Each structure stands twice: as C-alpha cells, then as structure tokens.
Amino acid sequence: MQVARPVVDLLRRPGGPRDRQLVYGDCVEILESSGDWQRVKSDKDAYEGWLPATALELAEAPTHWVCAPSTHIYAEPDIKSADRVSLSFGSRVTALVQNERFVETPLGHIPRQHLKPAGERFTDPVAVAALFLGTPYLWGGNSRCGIDCSGLVQAAMLACGHSCPGDSGDQVRAVGEALPSGTAPRRGDLLFWKGHVAWVADPETILHANAHHMATAYEPLKAAVDRIENQGDGPVTSHKRL
Fold it and tell me: What number is the average pLDDT over the span 73-98?
C-alpha cells in the first residue's frame, strides 16, 4: 500500500501521539488492523506506527518524485488553472502523460521543474536540507509543512540515495563514521547532541531544524554549541562524517 494523503501522521497507537510522518506515495507494509486503523511499517526506513486506513491506497510504481520544497497539483496543464492539492518534497508520483512543461499524474498536473525521475538523486545533502529553510519546526515532522531535526537529516540523506533511520537516536548509530573529538568540522558532517542533530554547512555554521528558531535555520556553530549546553541539553555527543 502507499500513502494517499499529502502528509499523514505515523502514530504510536490508534489516536495516539505522532512519532513521525509519511508523505504522498510513501510505501508501507500492513502489519496489523484494528477497526479503522492499520499498523504499518514504512518501506523507506522500517519505522512502524499506526495510520487511518483511509490514508492508504494500492501502491503504484512511481516514475517521479517531488524535488522542490513543495509543489502544486493543477487541474489542467496551465499555471492559471485551479490548484487541487500541494505535495511536499519527497512525494512519489506516477506519470500518465508528459509534455515540455507538465507531468500529468492521477492527481493532476505537476510542473516538470518540480520533479525528478525515479532513481535520480541529489549529491549534496546540505543543499537538500537548505531547501527547507524557513520550514516551521514540528516535532516528528517530515514535510515542508513542518519538520524536525531528524526529519531534516533523513530527507536530505534519502534524496542523495543514502539509507537513514527516522530518529536521531538511531541516526547516530547508523549514519556515517565517528570522528575523534576535536576534529575540524566540514560541510556535510553531522553533529549530534542528546536528542538533536544538525548538518555542518561550513566549518563555522550549522543548518538544523530546531525549537530555538522554531524553523529550519542556519546558526553559528560555536553559538549553537554554547546555547544548547547552557540550556541544559549538554555538549555535542558525536561528530559523524558520511
């Protein structure tokens, strides 16, 4: 099955709190059903949780994925036609017809500039993360509507063809090579704190989705390290390199 909504919460239990999110076209395996709810495992990261049964439909083979922060789905191949729905970065769609400007899908028409063919990837995860600048911070968020620190890392990693868990606690164990304390940071490194993760944009700057800015934002590295430790969340616990 695949997700049939632009964004859907992956819940800890039916009607419970959000742990993560899935976006349109994400494929899942159904593990269990309970009334109007289904417990699923996400194909992209093996994350498990509960979704409303109405949020799923039969999976189709995707031909493209949304590579812009978000896109509109138009009723006609015309930017002045009605927009039916918006999809977030990473959503997967199936093309029916293509022309120079639009790709027609079962949902409607998507500008070609906002899509990449299935299998085509980015090469710079930090550049991908920067697409989310200004996105509101949302605990457990995985979309342009709202994203958290680990969601930002996962979106960038998957877009570059790297496997990546959904939570920072799993990411610190699974992603990259640990570097000795005092190693000079460089672009593309990951810095981990207890319960937080950030991209290194350059040796003096990080890029992260964070509750201090309540958004995805750049922040001076030293200022961030000092702020996070001073607010009681401790020092950097791991420095990883892809």
Answer: 97
